[in-house]
Design brief:
By secondary structure, the protein is mainly β. The protein has one helix spanning 2-17, and strands at 30-41, 48-60, 63-74, 77-91, 94-103, 112-121, 126-136, 141-153, 156-167, 173-184, 188-202, 209-224, 229-240, 244-256.
Length: 257
């Protein structure tokens, strides 16, 4: 879900650079990224790690096909996840997003998930979005409502997102995400996000799905080294109630062609 939001954010920048200044130059409409994450957990719990490969192809303005594969290790359990998503313009100011994912092992990740979101562009740099995600785990499922607002001005973007998750047979829980991003250069950016509230999460066996208080601070960026190569990165500090605290990073290498 946050992955889809991040891609929607990247697509907002894509229109500015998809067309070359020189009509004779070749269009670069696809990107691929290889990366890894590592997070250290408190209370003597095993580290989290992952490797991922993802890509996107920009078909036209607000029309993009993307997907990827990720190998994840959490609590000494291994999952492989594949996902695919598609953005489609419904009208000049309306965009539809559809995304699905599957995990063969589904020990900590959902065995299957589906996400649908609609976004509306408004005057003066404003935008609104509303979506629903259904995640199926081994023993239960979770429905999540996602609603957000954003605004672009100058070299800045600010956004707010509400997540309301409800496990099957249980009460709902809400969390809030605040984001601020600064753009520099032609396509590079650096941002900060703070999430707080209560969240429905699968913390792995033997606990499984639970609802707990969370706080999360993430600093992220994308820096283009050349016209075609970029470094992407995250720094994360996350508190999952009284269960654990995890701190770590993500580092990726992105290629545009």
């Amino acid at each position: 879900m946050k992955r889809a939001a991040a891609l929607l954010f990247a697509l907002a920048q894509a229109a500015a650079w998809a067309q070359p200044a020189d009509p004779g130059l070749k269009l670069r409409m696809s990107e691929v990224e290889l990366g890894a994450t590592r997070e250290n957990l408190s209370k003597g719990l095993p580290d989290w790690r992952s490797l991922y490969l993802e890509g996107a192809h920009y078909i036209a303005d607000r029309q993009t096909l993307y997907g990827g594969v990720r190998r994840t290790e959490r609590f000494n359990k291994y999952d492989t996840e594949e996902w695919i998503g598609y953005y489609h313009p419904l009208a000049p100011t309306w965009t539809l997003l559809l995304e699905g994912s599957v995990s063969e092992q589904h020990q900590v990740l959902p065995k299957g998930a589906a996400f649908a979101q609609i976004a509306k562009l408004l005057p003066y740099g404003w935008g609104l979005n509303l979506g629903m995600r259904r995640s199926e785990y081994t023993t239960s499922g979770v429905n999540m409502l996602v609603a957000g607002a954003e605004r672009y001005w100058g070299n800045w973007r600010a956004a707010y997102t509400l997540y309301s998750g409800r496990p099957d047979g249980g009460p709902s829980a809400e969390s809030h995400r605040l984001q601020l991003t600064h753009f520099y250069g032609e396509r590079s950016s650096v941002g900060i996000a703070y999430t707080f509230g209560r969240e429905v999460e699968n913390v792995g066996p033997p606990v499984g799905i639970l609802t707990s208080d969370i706080r999360d601070l993430t600093i992220n960026g994308r820096h283009w080294l050349t016209t075609d190569w970029a470094l992407t990165w995250d720094l994360v500090a996350h508190e999952q109630g009284t269960l654990y605290r995890r701190e770590g990073f993500r580092l990726g290498l992105r290629y545009r062609f």
